[in-house]
Amino acid sequence: MLKKRFKLIFFHEGTSKKVEFNFSKKQILIAATSVLAVYLLFSIASGTLIQSVFGAKTVAALKNTNSRLEKQLNIANGKVKQLAQRMDNLSQSDGELRAYAHLPVLDPEALKMGIGGLLPYQGADNMEAGYLLSKLDELERQVGVQEKSLVDVRDQVDRETELLKSIPCIKPTQGGAFSSLFGHRRDPFNGRWVPHLGVDINAPTGTPVYSTAEGTVIFAAQEPAYGKMIVIDHGKGYKTLYAHLNRFYVSKGQEIKRGDRIADMGSTGRSTGPHVHYEVMRYSEHLNPLDFMFDGYAMARIP
């Protein structure tokens, strides 16, 4: 059987000259296979080259991004450490403030506020990032505890401030000499030993007498034994009494501040000379006024 052959004839334009090419079926298959193989090899080589070029650029970009992120994580880590140190300092200051305000110091474990379950951000892609997120959560909880603690301290200081306003804590006069102290003394008129519920301060008539704490005047009138007398209710159970006065500068019901001038010293009532008799009481119990004269406390309010 004759093998199949193919003939390719080319004619030159305007002439009868021709060129013939004879091909067998096998030759055509070999040529087609060769062309296809070359095409495939060229495609693979081109793809590999393109992938190599763009892949290198992608890897370089990823490396650059990772480097930048690592630097940012290092900066964030440093800032978190600084915040943690500042929180430690704040906790120490908070402890001092609470002690000053007579509040119990916070338990260190309360600041940690540990929680159960899995570790925070255990599934984070980056352990450094997971640590930072966990630390930030811890710091956030600590800030919440500190904020509440500061509110407690502020409220307590406000209460203490109100109490301090009520405590008689200055001498009712500038200058003057103590002629009789708290306790027992001989009555200057009959010589008998009798209780003396306050202190006597001698000074010339007209010497200013000052309120020793903030309060309300509840008595300002003449009394047989104490003469012209003022009683001030300071709240929190505290009251003060000023006797043998010469002139009033306040009246019953008047609100006054510590250091306000309330009267002038005199010798009214049962008295041997110009002085002020001064008493301090709390819930009707007489206390030694000398225990309530703190040097320098609020003296700037006195003219």
Task: Record the SSE blueprint.
Blueprint: E1 5-11, E2 18-24, H1 25-100, H2 108-112, H3 127-166, E3 177-180, E4 183-186, E5 193-196, E6 199-202, E7 208-210, E8 215-223, E9 227-235, E10 238-248, E11 255-256, E12 261-265, E13 275-282, E14 285-287
Antiparallel strand pairs: 1-2, 3-6, 4-5, 6-13, 7-12, 8-9, 8-11, 9-10, 10-12, 10-13, 13-14
Helix pairs in contact: 1-3
Structure characterization notes:
- The structure is a single chain.
- By secondary structure, the chain is of the alpha+beta class.
- The chain has two domains: 166 residues, no CATH class; 125 residues, Distorted Sandwich (Glucose Permease (Domain IIA)).
- The protein contains three helices and 14 strands.
- Strands 3, 6, 7, 8, 9, 10, 11, 12, 13 and 14 form a ten-stranded antiparallel beta sheet that branches. The protein has a two-stranded antiparallel ribbon with strand order 1-2. It has a two-stranded antiparallel sheet with strand order 4-5.
Order of helices and strands: EEHHHEEEEEEEEEEEE
Which percent bin holds the helix content? 25-40%
Total domains: 2
Number of strands: 14
Number of helices: 3
Q: Radius of gyration, Cα only, in angstroms? A: 50 Å
Strand pairing plus helix content: what structural class?
Answer: alpha+beta
Largest sheet geometry? 10 strands, antiparallel
Shape label: rod-shaped
The termini sit apart by: 142 Å
- Overall pLDDT metric: 77
Low-confidence stretches: 114-125, 296-303
Beta-strand residue percentage: 25-35%
> What oligomeric arrangement do these chains adopt?
single chain
